[in-house]
C-alpha cells in the first residue's frame, strides 16, 4: 500500500479529510485488491472528484432556481410552476426526481430522499443501497446515513469499484473508461478527473 497521510496530501487531499479517511481507505483497498499504485491513484482520484476532495459525502438537493431544476431534471419536472414548489425543499425535491427509479417507491414513499446519493462514489437508490448492504453485510437499508460516514463511504465505493471490475481498467491505464463507468456517457468533469489522477499518480509512484 502506498496510501499514507503524506501521499494523500500530495494527491491533494486536505489534512483533516486525510486523517479521517486513511484507515477506512486502507481497509477498503485491502478488501477489494486496490493494491497497486495505478489502482490506488485511479480510485483516490475518482473518489476525490466525486466527493469534492473527500469533503462532501451527501448529495445536496437544495435548489434556489426553478429554471435550473427544469434544466437538470426535464424528465421529472415538467413545468416552471412545479419546479417552483421544489425550491428550497430538499426532501420534496429528492422524493420527486428519484421516485419510481433505482428500486425507489413513489414520491410518498420517501425513498428518494432516504436513499439519495451518499458516499465517495454516490450510492443512490434503494436498489443500490440494498445490493451494497447485502454484499458488505451492513445495515444500509435501515441506516442509510452510515454511507455518509468515512467507513461506509469507502466500503460502498470499493464495492462499486469491484462490482464493475474497475481494477482491470486501472491496470490498463483506461482512466476515461473508469470515468464512464462511474458517471456514464456524459463524462462530467472528465478533464478535472484526469488532472487529479495525474497528481495522484505522482504521489503514489514517486514520479515527478
Structure description:
With 208 residues, the protein is mainly α. It has 2 domains: 123 residues; 49 residues, no CATH class. It contains 12 helices and no strands. Helix 10 runs antiparallel to helix 11. The longest helix is centred in the N-terminal third of the chain and has 17 residues.
Blueprint of the fold:
Blueprint: H1 5-10, H2 15-31, H3 37-50, H4 66-72, H5 80-86, H6 90-97, H7 111-114, H8 126-136, H9 150-163, H10 166-172, H11 175-183, H12 190-205
Which structural class best describes the helix and strand composition? mainly alpha
Number of domains: 2
Describe the largest sheet. none
Low-confidence stretches: none
Shape: globular
How big a fraction of the residues is strand? under 5%
**What do the pLDDT scores average to?**
95
Rg result = 18 Å
Helix content: 55-70%
Order of helices and strands: HHHHHHHHHHHH
Alpha-carbon distance between the termini? 19 Å
- How many helices? The count is 12
What's this entry about, in short?
The chain is an all-alpha fold and 208 residues long. 58% of the residues lie in helices and 0% in strands. The chain is built from 12 helices and no strands.
Keywords:
single chain, 208 residues, 2 domains, 12 helices
Amino acid at each position: 500500500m502506498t496510501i499514507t497521510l503524506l501521499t494523500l496530501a500530495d494527491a491533494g487531499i486536505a489534512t483533516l479529510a486525510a486523517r479521517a479517511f486513511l484507515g477506512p481507505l486502507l481497509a477498503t483497498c485491502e478488501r477489494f485488491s486496490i493494491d497497486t499504485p495505478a489502482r490506488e491513484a485511479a480510485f483516490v482520484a475518482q473518489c476525490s472528484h466525486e466527493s469534492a476532495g473527500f469533503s462532501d459525502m451527501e448529495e445536496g438537493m437544495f435548489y434556489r432556481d426553478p429554471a435550473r431544476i427544469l434544466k437538470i431534471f426535464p424528465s421529472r419536472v415538467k413545468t416552471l410552476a412545479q419546479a417552483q414548489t421544489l425550491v428550497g425543499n430538499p426532501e420534496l425535491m429528492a422524493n420527486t426526481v428519484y421516485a419510481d427509479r433505482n428500486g425507489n417507491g413513489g414520491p410518498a414513499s420517501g425513498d428518494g430522499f432516504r436513499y439519495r446519493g451518499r458516499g465517495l462514489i454516490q450510492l443512490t437508490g434503494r436498489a443500490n443501497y440494498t445490493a451494497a448492504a447485502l454484499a458488505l453485510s451492513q445495515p444500509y437499508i435501515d441506516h442509510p446515513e452510515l454511507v455518509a460516514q468515512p467507513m461506509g463511504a469507502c466500503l460502498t465505493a470499493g464495492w462499486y469499484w469491484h462490482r464493475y471490475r474497475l481494477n482491470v481498467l486501472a491496470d490498463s491505464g483506461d482512466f476515461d473508461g473508469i470515468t464512464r463507468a462511474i458517471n456514464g456517457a456524459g463524462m462530467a468533469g472528465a478533464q478535472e478527473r484526469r488532472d487529479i489522477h495525474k497528481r495522484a499518480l505522482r504521489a503514489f509512484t514517486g514520479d515527478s
